[in-house]
Amino acid sequence: MGMTIVQKILAKATEQASVKVGDVVEPRVDVAMSHENAALVINQFLDVYSGTGLEPNVWDPSKIAIIFDHRVPAESSKTASNHKKIREFVTAQGITKFHDIRGDEGGICHQILPENGYIRPGYVVVGTDSHTTTHGALGAFSFGIGATEMASVWTLGTVLNVEVPGTIKVIINGELSEYVSPKDIILHLIGKISAQGANFKVIEFHGDTVKNMSTSGRLVLSNMSVEAGATAGIVPADEETLRYLREVAGVTDEIEFVLPDADAAYEQIVEIDASKLTSQIACPHTVDNVKPIEAVEGIKINQIVIGSCTNGRLDDLEIAANILRGKKVAHETRMLIFPASWKIYKEALNQGYIMDFISAGAVVMNPGCGCCLGVHQGALGDKEISLSTTNRNFKGRQGNPNADVYLCSPAVAAASAITGVITNPSKGVN
Amino acid sequence: MISTVIAKFGDDISTDTIYPGRFMATVLPTETPQYAFIDEKELNAKLNSKQVPPNSVIVANNNFGCGSSREQAASTLKGWELIIVARNFARIFLQNSINLGLRTIICPTIEANEGDELEISETEIINKTSGKKFAIEPLPQARQAIIDAGGLIAYTKKKLLEKSKKN
């Protein structure tokens, strides 16, 4: 019996010929990513070393990535002090993949890692962020862990006691209609299998729709796999992966693919006909409360958000700009746009998208997580409704437990900004 | 051991409900407990009144702890020495709980309401109030090993010392 992609990667990362589902393994880590919560990782890391008589040095400073994105610039003195503590640690340890609050190299961790070529097919990637699943889009096994587990990785360079997960094969075929996007596919999948449908399992994405999808779109599928409970969401690497790594990420060294065997054993197979999909909306307060847009059209929206590690990439901004160009954001509606990185921000500037947004009345924010996690940059008032291209709509998510968040694609967000109500872009946005 | 159920939840209780993102700059386990379930005002007030004895129980249905990897969601409950009994847990939350020593019990058929008294053993939960018994699903060995070591810091420390002896 052959192996799934996660089995192949874990076998390689433990120097074994093969691993079975359920085996307990200790894979070596290729990239260990943290953001502001590195402040807690540092505490736990020092705790591991305390009383050992050993010098607390991370296992490999070149494999640790730290990106400030969750609260940039600092929204409070407490955060600013956390940033300061992390900067000092980065300097003391010689950590090289560090992205501070800077216009030349900053952004959201799940955009910074791929666009800088830090991720390769076959890598084992861990991050102290649940959306670390994002990097599966490049054929890596990439999963979220807590701060203490990261302290353990910083110490040993391995993840202790990993159980080899089973895999759900998701096959997506068919051509997407205009204005229907990878976001609609993943929302549909989450609605279909539920928020716990892939708990403790890996999703492998296959099918023609995925093959023909850009890496930017694949990052959306992998990013939101965690909303179905998946440990990771992996797209097997192919020509498009190679193109992205060479042309966008600037990787020049050798790239090796790790691919699933043709006779791999899957625990479940889910098939999706993408050609039948219309825009999908995740309604409050769970990500699996997904309805086709036809069921929620016309709901009045107070705040529209385009951005996040899910949908703040250049193609997302492009589709929004094409819809908004020459139009106005509706009165009584406000629109916030967060490019996922400063590189994307600069490309959007060069393409004229930023001017399109500002002229339409949108507010273009600095790259970062923004209001997605409810800390700053766009909290909701009581009983307000947000329509957002982000990834979570849990109660309280955008800073107010008495507000509602609906999740959608960039095209739906842009079309709805013009009308002030949930609007189906496929029905014409003029 | 007899424990009282102080709150009962349904499915998909997210880390945003347990520990909202706006408090994430607070990281110290000594400081996180005050914000536990802060938007569930009654429960938060109950905890902060300090009238809740250690080993009190929160019961939930499926997928407790879904969402963020924030470890504060585990440390905030650990701070009150609560026991979480759920039909099942989200992966990262479960792992964080094990790593920090928050007692999490997987009980796939649990039925209990606020105020019920539970007798919890290694293998089953007896709801003294309803008289019903529910089997506990044992944790996988790989996770149990971390609990037995006293949490992931202690477990990693042991591995670190073994490694440094070898070199």
Write up this protein.
The complex is a heterodimer of chains A (430) and B (167). With 430 residues, chain A is of the alpha/beta class. Chain A has two domains: 5-272, Aconitase, domain 3 (2-Layer Sandwich), CATH 3.30.499; 280-427, Aconitase, domain 3. Helices cover 31% and strands 16% of the residues of chain A. Chain A contains 14 helices and 18 strands. Chain A is globular. The mean pLDDT of chain A is 97. Chain B has 167 residues and is of the alpha/beta class. Chain B has one domain (2-136): Aconitase, domain 4, CATH 3.20.19. Chain B has helices at 15-18, 41-48, 72-78, 91-100, 141-148, 152-166, and strands at 2-8, 57-60, 83-86, 103-106, 117-120, 124-127, 133-135. In chain B, β5 (117-120) and β6 (124-127) form a beta hairpin. In chain B, α3 crosses α4 (91-100). The model of chain B has no long low-confidence stretch (mean pLDDT 96). At the A-B interface, α2, α3, α5 and β7 of A face α4, α5 and α6 of B.
Structure, briefly:
The complex is a heterodimer of chains A (430) and B (167). Chain A has 430 residues and is of the alpha/beta class.
CATH homologous superfamily caption of the largest domain in chain A: Aconitase, domain 3
Helix content of chain B: 25-40%
Radius of gyration of chain B: 16 Å
Shape of chain A: globular
What class would the helix/strand composition of chain A place it in? alpha/beta
Number of helices of chain B: 6
Give the overall pLDDT of chain B as a whole number.
96
Query: Beta-strand level of the residues of chain B, as a percent range?
Result: 15-25%
The counted number of beta strands of chain A is 18
Task: Indicate the CATH topology of chain B.
Answer: Aconitase, domain 4
Let me know the largest β-sheet of chain A: 5 strands, parallel
Number of strands of chain B: 7
Q: What is the CATH superfamily of chain B?
A: Aconitase, domain 4
Q: So what's the oligomer here?
A: heterodimer
Stretches with pLDDT under 50, minimum 5 residues of chain A: none
Read across the widest sheet of chain B, the strand sequence of neighbours is 4-3-2-1-5-6-7
* Strand order in the largest sheet of chain A: 4-3-2-5-6
CATH C-level class of the largest domain in chain A is: Alpha Beta
Whole-number total of structural domains of chain A? 2
SS class of chain B: alpha/beta
